[in-house]
Amino acid sequence: MDLADSLGLVCSLLELLVPTHYLDTDGHANSVIDLIFLGMSCAQVLHYIEPDLRWPSDHASLLVNLYILLENICFSKKILKHDSDKENNFLFSIFMGLCALNFSRLDFVDDLDLFSKAVSRIISNAWDANARNITATTRSKEWWNNECRNALATYRCTEAREDWCLFRSTTRSIKRSFFDDRIAEIASTNKRPWDLMSWVKQYKLPIVEAIQYQGLFCNSLSNLWHALHSSYNVTANHSVQLFILDDILCLAPQP
């Protein structure tokens, strides 16, 4: 319990005292194996046991309901977009930081520990300098920003038609500005127009094999028909060697 107190945990109480370990051996009573630790903010939360849900198991589950407020859930994370200038800056910062390190003093464990911490610090600083924070939702958009979020919050508070129109005009303006910048970046930087729309992305052609006849590829329907027709005429009226069927095992007819 001292360890739990030092970690800021409290032992949860049971709503109804029932066994958690059920024995099939005669003469042995069922026992209770019940120990759940929760945070100090959940000190008044009680847990419970569902013996009817244990099925063939000899242990019943210990269950507890924890109520988490929406504002306590972190939806934000840092990202670094692939093939972007920020990613190039991130890699270049790591490269320059590693080049500046001294690799000659790695004879002892302490030196190796300091070196590994220095590498970790270089990567961490490069990440913090180039990665950006995003808020992930089920309807996240790249163009969504704080201005759109504030306009939406204002409408939700007032539910006024004017605020709704203001929110719509704000999102349209932000979206137009975002895609104008994106188009300008693609046109002047990477020059890959297929990044604008998923259905015009660059793709590799499928690997195919062409039919050859007399050393020439049959790339048209007329050439293909000529090859098939000529091949048929070559074998027309030729006798068939039936002895190749002798190797096939003969089976008794089935009724």
How would you summarize what this structure contains?
By secondary structure, the chain is an alpha+beta fold.
How would you describe this structure in keywords?
255 residues, 3 domains, two-stranded antiparallel ribbon, 6 helices, alpha+beta
SSE topology sketch:
Blueprint: H1 2-6, E1 9-11, E2 13-14, E3 37-39, E4 46-50, E5 61-64, E6 76-79, H2 85-99, H3 109-130, E7 132-135, H4 146-158, H5 161-190, E8 212-213, E9 216-217, H6 221-235
Parallel strand pairs: 2-4
Antiparallel strand pairs: 1-3, 4-5, 6-7, 8-9
Largest beta sheet: strand ordering? 2-4-5
| Mean pLDDT across every amino acid position | 79
Separate helix tally: 6
User: Regions with pLDDT < 50 over 5+ consecutive residues?
Assistant: none
The percent range for helix content is: 25-40%
Distance between the termini: 82 Å
Rg value: 36 Å
Q: Helix and strand succession?
A: HEEEEEEHHEHHEEH
Largest sheet: 3 strands, mixed
How many beta-strand segments?
Answer: 9
**Coarse structural class:** alpha+beta
The overall number of domains is 3
Please state the overall shape, judged from the principal axes of the Cα atoms: extended
The fraction of residues in strands falls at 5-15%
